[in-house]
Amino acid sequence: MLTRQGSTKNKKHPPGKLIVIDGTDGTGKTTQAALLIKHLRQEKYNVALADFPRYGLPSAYFVEQYLNGRYGKADTIDPYAASLFYALDRFDAQKTLKKQLAQEQIIVSNRYVTANMGHQGGKIKSLLARRRYFRWLDWLEHDTLKLPRPDLTIILHVPATIAQRLVDRKGRREYIRRKRDLHESDLEHLKAAERTYLEIARRFPKFTLVECVENGKLLSPAVIHEKIWTIVHKII
Fold it and tell me: I want to staple 122 with a disulfide (CB 3.0 to 4.6 A). Which of 75, 191, 192, 210 is the partner?
């Protein structure tokens, strides 16, 4: 969902920025997006939240059906087809995103195009075929659907085996009425997505990896946030 995060006096007015928090399931993206927004507001920035997929809205219908398993197991759904489900949900938010950027807001997006790259790209075993998919996805979401390109993408990294356990700490999600969705219940899918997220963090210049586990232990949300803030404050 897209929400305005309130207003304060004497805001700083940099050019609009789009900052994405992404990574595999269970990495604390929602928590880190909230902490970043809180910090930016304390610094008097004009901030908006984008949260994808936008569960409960008509534009997320096919995403919800996919994650509920209506179309089959994750590895049986063509990555190009599944990418369309998520891309069209973002397309429905495109005008709002552009308006917020034009108003010099900093948008913090909980997931974005990167989520397709990681989860759907991870289904493609061949490196060359996966890179063709990345080019196609860029053409689809940015060139064709005209979604704004991020100024910075933070990729949170937690090993898939740990991430799946963290998912189980969450309550039941309304869009699936259970704890794990189609991706979260498939450890091999999560491992493939993890490898792909690491790949794109190495390959693309505006993608920055943030390690959330040290010596086998999950770092606290506050420590992870400080890592993120060190990166973010350089571009705002």
Answer: 192
Judging by beta carbons within 10 Å of its beta carbon (0-12, 13-18, 19+), is residue 236 exposed, middle or buried?
middle
SS (HEC) of 92-154: HCHHHHHHHHHCCCEEEEECCHHHHHHHCHHHCCCHHHHHHHHHHHHHHHHHHCCCCCCCEEE
pTM over 0.85: yes
Q: Is 181 marked within a binding site?
A: no
Annotated binding residue 27? yes
Q: What CATH number did the domain enclosing 187 receive?
A: 3.40.50.300
The annotation status of 118 as a binding-site residue, yes or no, is: no
* Residue 216 is labelled as binding a ligand: no
The closest of 107, 67, 56, 115 to 87, measured between CA atoms, is: 115
26 known member of a binding site: yes
Q: Is 78 annotated as a binding residue?
A: no
Where would I find the beta strands (DSSP E) of the chain? 2-4, 17-23, 47-51, 106-110, 152-157, 207-211, 213-214, 217-218
- The DSSP bridge pattern shows strands 213-214 and 217-218 to be antiparallel
- Number of structural domains (the chain) is 1
pLDDT digits (tens, 9 = 90+) for 81-119: 999 999 999 999 999 999 999 999 999 999 999 999 999
Q: What is the pLDDT of residues 186-226, one digit of tens each?
A: 788 889 999 999 999 999 989 999 999 999 899 999 999 99
Which structural domain, as residue segments, surrounds residue 73? Answer: 2-232
Query: Any binding-site annotation on 69?
Result: no
Q: Is 30 annotated as a binding residue?
A: yes
